[in-house]
């Protein structure tokens, strides 16, 4: 029987620029979750895509000298390529310029407009907006939120330039939804907004003054027309956020997809866009009468060798460059192992090489290579048979069998990917200690039956490690499982535990190292 469905989303990326490490990071975390849930028997919808409307994209297209539609087609393609490059298993890739999305946005608007706020007022009203707008952030700011630059000029809290905007606009009565939003967040630790520090940040924002939100623009045209008044286009964040229900089939609420996947289980976002996801989005959904996402998790930001990543500093990290240099699964491993998920982190060459060589090559790679080589040489390349188990054997097998529960909690509940890897590595190191202590190479002559048992137990531990590490490093773990003789239909989590063990006498292919050492160019250090 399949377990409950799981719907996880990345933010949809602005197509004003090429993909960078920040985009790769958000999607990677979602990919690991999606792969984990599939292996654990859930049916999964993992969504990513591109955010293609608004002033920022319109300006970028103009600067490139391209008509907006051609520009967004081109840049959106680069994000599709990122999915291939990083081996993401997304089930859908949405573009906000697609007909299904335009239909969905207009219907969501109609429903919000047709309903009243908890105070019995129309959710949407027409007025004039006069205030500060940042095109880079695509966000409106109150005077009190702005900061001053060195010359006394105004900047958004993110450091982005702002401009004064005055135009007719539809407004959303955000303030009327305050109490409903607070009820939705619940107490700290409720798990609706995570991590807890972000929960507190969102609650104090909502407890403060919640201004009505301008949700349409009239001074440019690259966007979705407001139903019934096409002098206005929708505010790009209302348009963009709606992608999450579009991909779930909205407005076809009777569709299988919608009934299976909405509300989303998790919106994964960077900390800079938390307010849009944890405040505006649930307020829009409540106003439209739709169910609310179960969780929003905000992760931290990467710096490069200690410096803020920016185009002007010329230190943007291109996913394709690091994948070529270090290897795909090495990059996937590093990004989720190096930094506690939720915190900010620093990308450095030294840290990357350190983890590749010590944790992947020395710890995990050597473990598999050593055990598989001994099986190949001393057991005629066939899975050995275990005789009676010693205390040491049982201890390692128990640790391997108990691992999935610990990893599941860290990935699916806490989203602590670094802790999940840490748990896996506790058993990797334990298995290495076991092999060193049992000295199977010395048993070859003195006690071949015991040697066979030790190699069998070690192989069984490695099978568990490789199955559980698949969501992080799919290609490398597949190679390891091939070498262990694990059939393709024996790799999901229902095969964990003694019942899924590889049958003794199964023929194994010749072993090959899965995690090579990174040999550094001395000139670079
Ligand atoms: O915000 N480290 O799109 P975007 C980590 N279109 N994450 C980073 C980062 C860094 N240095 N730089 C950026 C948008 N990010 C909207 C989303 S969703 C309905 C609309 C992350 O292309 C950032 O936190 O600016 C965010 O999650 C994503 O990349 C930003 O993508």
Largest sheet: 7 strands, parallel
Number of strands: 19
**Multimerization state:** single chain
Question: What ranges have pLDDT less than 50 throughout 5 or more consecutive residues?
Answer: none
Query: Bound compounds, please?
Result: ligand ME8
Number of helices: 18
Q: Given the helix and strand composition, which structural class is it?
A: alpha/beta
Instruction: Indicate the percent of residues in helices.
Output: 40-55%
Hey, roughly how much beta strand do the residues contain? 15-25%
Categorize the overall geometry: elongated
Termini separation: 54 Å
Overall pLDDT confidence: 96
In words, what does this structure look like?
The chain has 525 residues and is of the alpha/beta class. 47% of the residues lie in helices and 16% in strands. It has 18 helices and 19 strands. The strands form five sheets. Strands 1, 2, 3, 4, 10, 15 and 16 form a seven-stranded parallel β-sheet that branches. A four-stranded antiparallel β-sheet has the order 6-5-9-11, with no helix packed on it. Ligand ME8 is lined by residues 11-14, 22-23, 25-26, 51, 240-241, 243, 269-270, 272-273, 301-302, 309.
Secondary structure elements and their pairing?
Elements: E1 3-9, E2 13-14, H1 21-39, E3 42-51, H2 55-64, H3 68-86, E4 92-95, H4 99-114, E5 124-134, E6 139-141, E7 147-148, E8 154-155, E9 163-172, H5 178-185, E10 193-194, H6 196-207, E11 213-214, E12 216-217, E13 225-226, E14 229-234, H7 236-241, H8 243-246, H9 256-261, E15 266-270, H10 274-288, E16 296-299, E17 302-304, E18 307-308, H11 319-326, H12 328-337, E19 345-347, H13 349-378, H14 391-413, H15 417-438, H16 440-446, H17 448-469, H18 474-483
Parallel strand pairs: 1-3, 1-15, 2-3, 3-4, 10-16, 15-16, 17-19
Antiparallel strand pairs: 5-6, 5-9, 7-8, 9-11, 12-14, 13-14, 17-18
The protein binds ligand ME8.
């Amino acid at each position: 029987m399949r377990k409950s469905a799981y719907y996880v989303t990345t933010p949809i990326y602005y197509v004003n620029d090429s993909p960078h490490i920040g985009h790769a990071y958000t999607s990677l975390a979602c990919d690991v979750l999606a792969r984990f849930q599939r292996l654990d028997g859930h049916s999964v919808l993992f969504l990513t895509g591109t955010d293609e409307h608004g002033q920022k994209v319109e300006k970028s297209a103009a600067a490139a000298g391209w008509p907006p539609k051609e520009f967004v087609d081109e840049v959106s393609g680069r994000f599709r390529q990122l999915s291939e490059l990083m081996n993401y298993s997304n089930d859908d890739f949405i573009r906000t310029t697609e007909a299904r999305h335009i239909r969905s946005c207009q219907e969501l608007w109609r429903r919000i407009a047709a309903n009243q706020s908890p105070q019995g007022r129309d959710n949407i009203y027409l007025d004039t907006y006069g205030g500060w707008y940042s095109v880079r952030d695509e966000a409106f700011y109150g005077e009190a939120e702005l900061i001053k630059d060195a010359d006394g000029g105004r900047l958004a809290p993110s450091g982005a330039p702002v401009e004064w905007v005055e135009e007719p606009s539809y407004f959303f009565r955000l303030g009327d939804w305050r109490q409903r939003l607070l009820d939705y967040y619940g107490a700290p630790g409720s798990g609706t907004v995570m991590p807890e520090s972000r929960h507190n940040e969102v609650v104090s924002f909502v407890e403060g003054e919640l201004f009505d939100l301008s949700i349409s623009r009239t001074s440019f045209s690259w966007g979705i027309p407001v139903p019934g008044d096409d002098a206005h286009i929708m505010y790009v964040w209302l348009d963009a956020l709606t992608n999450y229900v579009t991909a779930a089939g909205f407005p076809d609420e009777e569709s299988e997809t919608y009934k299976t996947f909405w509300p989303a289980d998790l919106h994964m976002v960077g900390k800079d866009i938390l307010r849009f996801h944890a405040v505006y989005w649930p307020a829009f959904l409540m106003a439209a009468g739709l169910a609310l996402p179960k969780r929003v998790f905000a992760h931290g930001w990467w710096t490069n060798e200690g410096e803020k990543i920016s185009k002007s500093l010329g230190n943007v990290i291109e996913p394709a460059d690091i994948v070529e240099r270090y290897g795909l699964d090495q990059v996937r491993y590093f990004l989720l192992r190096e930094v506690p998920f939720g915190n900010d982190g620093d990308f450095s060459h030294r840290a990357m090489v350190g983890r590749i060589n010590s944790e992947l090559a020395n710890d995990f790679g050597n473990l598999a290579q050593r055990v598989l080589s001994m099986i190949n040489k001393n057991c005629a390349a066939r899975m050995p048979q275990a005789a009676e188990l010693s205390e040491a054997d049982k201890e390692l097998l128990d640790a391997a069998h108990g691992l999935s529960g610990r990893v599941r909690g860290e990935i699916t509940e806490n989203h602590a990917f670094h802790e999940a890897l840490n748990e896996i590595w506790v058993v990797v190191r334990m298995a290495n200690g076991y092999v060193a202590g049992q000295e199977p190479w010395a048993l070859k002559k003195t006690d071949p039956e015991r040697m066979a048992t030790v190699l069998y137990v070690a192989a069984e531990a490695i099978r568990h490690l490789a199955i559980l590490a698949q969501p992080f490093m799919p290609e490398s773990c597949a190679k390891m499982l091939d070498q262990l003789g694990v059939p393709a239909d024996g790799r999901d989590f229902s095969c964990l535990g003694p019942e899924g063990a590889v049958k003794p006498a199964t023929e194994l292919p010749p072993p090959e190292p899965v995690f090579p050492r990174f040999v550094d160019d001395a000139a670079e250090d």
